[in-house]
Amino acid sequence: MKLTGAEIVLRCLQEEGVDTVFGYPGGAVLHIYDALFNQDRVRHVLVRHEQGAIHAAEGYAQATGKVGVGLVTSGPGATNAVTGLATAHMDSVPMVVISGQVPTALIGNDAFQEADTVGITRPCTKHNFLVKDVAELATTLKKAFYIAASGRPGPVVVDIPKDVSAAECEFEYPEEVHLRSYNPTIKGHSGQIKKAVQLLRSAERPMVYTGGGVVLGDAAEELTELVRKFGFPITNTLMGLGGYPGDDPQFVGMLGMHGTYEANMGITHCDVLLAIGARFDDRVTGKIERFAPHAKIIHVDIDPSSISKNVEVDVPIVGHVQSVLADLNQVADKMGTGDPDRLQPWWEQINEWRGRDCLAYDRESRRIKPQYVLEKLYEVSGGNAIVTSDVGQHQMWAAQFYHFKRPRQWLNSGGLGTMGYGFPAALGAQMAYPDAAVVCVTGEGSIQMNIQELSTAKQYRLPVKILNLNNGYLGMVRQWQELFYDNRYAESYVDALPDFVALAEAYGFKGLRTDNPADVEGLLREGLAHDGLVFMDLIVDPEENVYPMVPAGAGLDEMVLV
Amino acid sequence: MRRVISVLLENEAGALSRVAGLFSARGYNIEGLSVAPTDDPEVSRMTIVTTGDEQIIEQIIKQLRKLIEVIRVTDLTEGVHVEREMVLLKLRAETGEDRAEIKRIADIYRSRIIDVTDASYTLEVTGDGQKVEALLELFDASQVVEVVRTGTIAIGRGAGGM
Ligand SMILES: Cc1ncc(C[n+]2csc(CCOP(=O)(O)OP(=O)(O)O)c2C)c(N)n1
User: Fold this and answer.
1) Quick check: is A142 catalytic?
2) B28 CA to chain A: closest CA distance, Å?
3) pLDDT attached to residue A500
4) A372-406 pLDDT, tens digit each
């Protein structure tokens, strides 16, 4: 039986096991929306802005590990999706975004709502396709899902002209696709793995540093086994939080620009550094010459181009982190993990650094300290909430004070740093886990970047808990201006804020507000216990700063402490 | 360091701009670029001449391999290889003296005259970069009407293919 291109799209989504698509309709995708209407296996979430659709799909993908799917129309629909694609690309989130395109005969003619979608999205996707023939549609979608989810994951755009979604063709979904030019390495080189274990078992001042790759590669279990086996200290990047239990004594906190004293000092003084699924990003390394200067570095990553890109490494291992970690565990069991006593002085040193209590803040203040709010959130939610964040100070405090216990519990835009990510991502995560507590930690600047999605939350009754750390400033910008621009707060004061409680109520949601530290815990309990969406507007100390802080261009050991 | 990198890639719309886009996005140099289909019409060969230190060249090669449509990448400069470039050179040739001189030079460089008018000669010359440069240096700007270069192509020596 022949199907139209639009019907083929839906059949492919069904074959891929896609249950949720986030999107927004328009002329070029009308056939596809019609096909969507005529089936009931794939549900569609109508957002209020295409950027929201892509972030929601991202949140869904990051929370579940499945491929997130977006659907947008041509021209402005596709250009609105670009920020989301770039965000997903930087954080290696598996996504397939289907965009409508003007009919093939009009491509290149500056037709109504035409944009060169494959041209625009080429640098911010893992790959993209323009489908010019309906006969190639099914195979192309199969390839898109395969590319998005395999190797180092990432977003893939499939651009479908309107006539292609109307044309008819026999439907057959390929069982698998083979691309001669794309074969990610899974298994790590056994010689390199032995070399790595040798280094690890003789290390006297070891550090383990892991990133988003461990979360994306579902390798938390293997990582935890390895780290416990060796008894090493471990630090995570912003994207890597949850890859190792944040409440474990071997965990020394996040590293990097706003990392802990113990993590950053540990990196600076270690003799062997095991980096896994991390990419030595500049926010992590600080001044590159001062990053782990005494260490032999082992680097495990699925992407060969991540290795020795920023920092020269001694033992590169290309492979899937889960597979490589399993092999490392196996070889370590055979070869032994070395004498545990040798680590004693190192742990003493680390504990001394810990004693510096670098995350301390004023607990006597009459103003609400944002750190306190996050500490209480951790307590009140039992450390079990799925937390998304936007970008700014609140993001760093969430990373520092919420001790993520498991992977996929912490969703945020680490690579691109996209304000506006947090709320739609929370909607996506809530779609995936309707019964979970999903908290969006945000600021009054960021939340307003995609606040229109309140309407989406209303339509789908998504009980997301918004925690707005309202400092009245674009706080992270203000902090830099205070520290590096002599207190000249150029355009970082968010004047004319709406009454967020009234705004929430206008949508029929619950709104809560306080500026009193004594009320914080009660408010959080009330908010989290509510069975619908809550907007918790916490008026916090307007001039609190995030510390420790490694100034841009300085080394990790040159951080500013309070 | 100058490097000649040979790339086999799927002959698909967009593949060329992916490679070009990679170089511009990451700030790598392209000194020469030539592309054409191979004996297999589904595969194109691209020869890229670039410069950079060892670390940059390593990144360029890794980043090229990361592109989904790229099948194989080889740094030809690592082994023995042959380079060729073709140049079409249109020269002012109005006086008898000029015309004789150009013909002499063309002979020495084993270059062919492929177009003649009463005011110009067009030469075709093939060789490695050095030969081509040497020839071009013989003529001063006032004599040269136009220079068209293919950019370098290259192949490894020996019986094996890429
Ligand atoms: C889309 C976008 N625009 C600009 C920035 C630059 N930026 C980084 S943090 C920040 C301030 C965020 O303010 P707010 O959301 O109120 O959070 P706070 O830092 O006060 O916690 C800005 C403007 C960004 N990251 N993303």
Assistant:
1) no
2) 14
3) 98
4) 999 999 999 999 999 999 999 999 999 999 999 99
Q: Interface pTM (ipTM) of the complex?
A: 0.90
What token pair was written down for A402?
Answer: 């919420």
Q: At residue A494, does pLDDT exceed 80?
A: no
Q: Does the residue A176 lie in any domain? A: no
Query: For this structure, is A113 an active site residue?
Result: yes
SS3 sequence of A362-422: CCCCCCECHHHHHHHHHHHCCCCCEEEECCCHHHHHHHHHCCCCCCCCEECCCCCCCCCCH
A351 touches chain B (CB under 8 A): no
Mutate to test the pocket of ligand 1, among A283, A412, A440, A474 (most ligand atoms within 8 A of CB): A474
Nearest C-alpha to atom 13 of ligand 1 is from which residue?
Answer: A474
What pLDDT score does B162 carry? 81
A540 touches ligand 1 (CB under 6 Å): no
> What confidence category does residue A365 fall into, taking pLDDT thresholds of 50, 70 and 90?
very high
**Min Cα–Cα distance to chain A from B137, Å:** 40
User: Is A112 a known active-site residue?
Assistant: yes
Residue A241 and residue A212 share a domain: yes
In a domain, A308, yes or no: yes
Question: In CATH terms, are B2-79 and B82-155 the same topology?
Answer: yes
pLDDT tens across A192-203, in order? 999 999 999 999
Structural domain includes residue A146: yes
Active site residue A291: no
Which residues of B fall within a CB distance of 8 Å from A181? Answer: 9-10, 68-71
Closest in A118, A126, A181 to B14, CB measured: A118
Answer whether A544 contacts ligand 1 (Cβ < 6 A): no
How is chain B split into domains, by residue range? 2-79, 82-155
Global model pTM greater than 0.80 = yes
A199 and A162 housed in the same domain: no
Cβ distance A304 to B65 less than 8 Å, yes or no, reads: yes
The structural architecture, per CATH, of the domain B2-79 is: 2-Layer Sandwich (3.30)
Q: CA A231, CA A250: separation in Å to the nearest integer? A: 7
Is A182 inside any structural domain? no
- Pair (A241, A141) in one structural domain: no
Q: Nearest C-alpha of chain A: how many angstroms from B10?
A: 8
The CA-atom distances, in angstroms, between B109 and each of A519, B113, B128, B136 are: 90, 11, 12, 11
Same domain (yes/no): A282, A385:
no
Atom number, ligand 1, closest to the C-alpha of residue A446: 15
Name every residue whose Cβ is closer than 8 Å to that of residue A364 and which is 6 or more positions away in sequence: none
Does residue A414 have a pLDDT over 90?
yes
Under an 8 A CB cutoff, do B62 and A305 touch? yes
Residue among A214, A279, A241, A208 nearest A412 (CA): A241
User: Is A544 considered catalytic here?
Assistant: no
The answer on A431 and A328 residing in a single domain is no
* Contact partners, residue B52, CB within 8 Å, separation at least 6: B1, B3, B28, B29, B60
Measuring CA to CA, how many Å separate A346 from each of A204, A342, A448? Answer: 7, 8, 46
Q: Are residues A259 and A343 in the same domain?
A: yes
CATH architecture of the domain with residue range B82-155? 2-Layer Sandwich (3.30)
Identity of the residue in A127, A147, A305 whose CB atom sits nearest the CB atom of B59: A305
Q: Which domain holds residue A393?
A: 370-539
Residues A396 and A258 in one domain: no
Residue A480: CB atoms within 10 A of its CB come to 16
pLDDT bin (cut points 50, 70, 90) of residue A239 is very high
Give the count of domains, chain A. 3
